[in-house]
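Bench log. Compound arrived from synthesis this morning; before running ITC I wanted a structural hypothesis for how iron/sulfur cluster sits in the protein. Inputs:
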Amino acid sequence: MSAILELEDVARAFPVRDALGRAKGAVRAVDGVSLSVPEGAVLAIVGESGCGKSTLGRVMLRLIEADRGAIRFMGDDLRALKPDALRRRRRDMQLIFQDPFASLDPRMTVEEAVAEPLRLHGIVPRAQERERVAELMARVGLRPEQARRWPHEFSGGQRQRIAIARALASQPRLIVGDEPVSALDVSVQAQVINLLQDLIREFRLTFVLISHDLGVVRHIADRVAVMYLGRIVEEGPTAQVFHAPRHPYTRALLAAVPGQGVKAVPLEGDVPSPIDPPSGCRFRTRCPFAEAICTEQAPPLEGGSHAAACHLQHRLPPAVPPAEHDAGGERLRRLQAFFTDRKTNNTGATT
Ligand code: SF4
């Protein structure tokens, strides 16, 4: 599968100032990320809060400018595009936010909100806008006549469906979803995830899912990239990363998922400050396997299609007792029930 999006050594830092406005350092939110997103795949970016995954999602769409590195999207050098060319390219890439209410303008009816990208990118003649909005509403499980209402008249799940319809309006090739279901009730989460899965298949979308919820990631992602303090520490096919994690941080994250069956020392302590990250391996201050080399040298991300950034990745004990692989946790069981009960979830229920 060829890559629709490629990042090479991408970095972005934010200056930090003291109370008097004097520079006192920089938060290195994204620090040397290289990543390839295969066309038509769902790639999940996971990690604890503050690891840089949301910044990375915006940098890859050039909604936040990178300080360095290359971003290639559909053959274009995204960072080199002039404003006009970038505006045209934006039609092909969309972002779905965590908070659907914040992403919809309360002064616009739903019809106006969904029609805006149609008009901006000249997708259909003006006379056909209403008809196209109605099609999009129906496709995300809402009634076309609901388009005349205001965002505050909808539930959280319905608002996220509206945000998805708006993202689909420009007929994008790539959508980045930044925690698109984490603000929703778990039963509504499963409905919206089912909808996203259907749309990804139907429209042959490439989807980058930014999430801290490994239960959701396991169900819908083809590949997973694990971030820690601004860097990718493991990346590979979802099944391999979940069943045979190579990085101690990935193990610790998975050990916290009920029913995953991964045995690992639980994560202790806070994530170190991204203003002054540890030398060598950034995970070494929390890693139970750390050795001297971990302080001295930053481990490269290596291993081919399932890669990890750990000096000891080939010497660590097995992570998953095979007999415990698929034991079910309550949360996973509830999600799985929704995923398998397709009839219930995809018959127009729009909670
Ligand atoms: Fe732990 Fe060393 Fe591997 Fe870092 S490189 S994850 S400190 S063993």
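What the model suggests: Residues 106-171 form one domain. The mean pLDDT is 88.
ITC booked for Thursday regardless.
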